[in-house]
Amino acid sequence: MKIQILGTGCPKCSTLAKQAEEAAKQLGADYEIEKLTDIRDIMKMGVMTTPALAIDGSVKIVGKVPTVEEIKKIISGI
């Protein structure tokens, strides 16, 4: 699974990346994390507010940092 963190590198984006990685590890998921920091790439995914979380190219969360538990639920729903 590809976990994408969309954001320009702000502290919230870093927190989201850490929490997404923690969630994936706790689930024992096979994953890779990609950070999209270029605003043009972010906008191509339809995201206007960061941070955002996408799983396999599908945007799941925009404009907030979900908890590890929330991210686990999102990942499990795939």
What's the gist of this structure?
This protein is an alpha+beta fold and about 80 residues long.
Secondary structure tally: strands: 4
Give the count of helical stretches: 3
Straight-line N-to-C gap: 9 Å
Shape descriptor reads globular
Quote the beta fraction. 15-25%
Strands side by side in the biggest sheet: 2-1-3-4
Order of helices and strands: EHEHEEH
Largest sheet: 4 strands, mixed
Assign a percent range to the helix content: 40-55%
- Spans of 5+ residues with little confidence (pLDDT < 50)? none
**For the residues shown, what is the average pLDDT?**
95
Structural class determined from secondary elements: alpha+beta
Radius of gyration: 11 Å
Question: Helices and strands in order, then pairings?
Answer:
Elements: E1 2-6, H1 11-27, E2 32-36, H2 39-44, E3 52-55, E4 58-62, H3 68-76
Parallel strand pairs: 1-2
Antiparallel strand pairs: 1-3, 3-4
